[in-house]
Amino acid sequence: MRSSTTKQPTAAEYLPLLFGFAVYQIGAAVAGLGVVEALADGPRTVGRLATITDTHPGHLRRLLRAATAAQLLRATDDDAFELTTLGRIFAKESPLQAAPLTAMHSAAPVWQAWGALEESVRTGRNAFELAHGSRLFDFLKGEPELAATFHDAMAAGSEVQLPAIISGFDFSRFRHAVDVGGGNGTHLAAILAANPRLRGTVFDTANGVVEAADVLESAGVADRCEVVSGSFFDSVPAAADAYLLKNILHDWNDDECRQILENCRAGLAPDGRIVVFTSVLSEGRGDEDPAEALGAAIFDIEMMVMTTGRERTLSEFEALFAAPGLRLDTATALPCPFLYYALEAVPVER
């Protein structure tokens, strides 16, 4: 009889699975309490940090020790702590903009929604609705503080993605771009600033575009851009040759996406294109960076938790585009984390 031994996973391998939630909340607390901001200029003692952050010194010390074990902080010889390179991702100036994203995900309603993930998988229902009795965007209407946190997180994500979009995608071929679901205009303002011959339209709900005129004015592009309010489920401004959908389709299910795409197709100029900026799920061939593929997959689960939508593979996007009479013409990988692409769709007859 042959005996065999199976190598057991190391703590470094299994801790993220068993206690990843705890590490996450340690980072969220360090950021949310103001510890990162207090350490921006250099090390501080526990006592000084407790005073600055108005926290319990004993409990703060324990949090700082845990954050040190998580490699977010480094202890010095004089009972002080300082930020590590990893810890600096929570700083305001960090290009990764981790602090606003962490603030959203550690908010109690979002945390509770993730707690309903298993039930969501069992039932096929949206986890946020299971946890709170209403969909995310309806819930936010009655929770202004959470809504502000949510919009800060979305803006932070855009700040990470926008440089990659501007540097990695050619907007110079277009005459007029409509940013569908463009919010306060930050995305389109940056695109217009980098493409001085391009004209634009920011299109979103009345609440979504409240600050858009000021953003466009501050960016110096207001003379080339109008602001239009409405619902992309009803119609979109007509006759543009580029309809931009940045991080929009993943919020909605296939039927809802079909309606959005049909409206964009109806407004499209004869030579126009619908451009979808989105993460794309791995097809499972094993040719992507594992961390990149995991990031995109986590985004897909987040869509299951937070919305009726999903992330999609390229083949799933092809099927999604086909329903309203479109075809995927070009897929351009962008220099941005988590398999981020610009997908260009055109009418089938072209």
Automatic annotation (TrEMBL):
Transmembrane segments: 12-36
Record has Transmembrane as a keyword: yes
Keywords attached to this entry: Membrane, Methyltransferase, S-adenosyl-L-methionine, Transferase, Transmembrane, Transmembrane helix
O-methyltransferase dimerisation domain sequence ranges: 17-92
Highest taxon of the lineage: Bacteria
Boundaries of every O-methyltransferase C-terminal domain copy: 114-325
Pfam families from the UniProt entry: Dimerisation (PF08100), Methyltransf_2 (PF00891)
Signal peptide feature range: none
InterPro entries reported for this sequence: COMT-like, COMT_C, COMT_dimerisation, SAM-dependent_MTases_sf, WH-like_DNA-bd_sf, WH_DNA-bd_sf
Name the UniProt record assigns to this protein: Methyltransferase
Taxonomic source organism: Streptomyces humicola
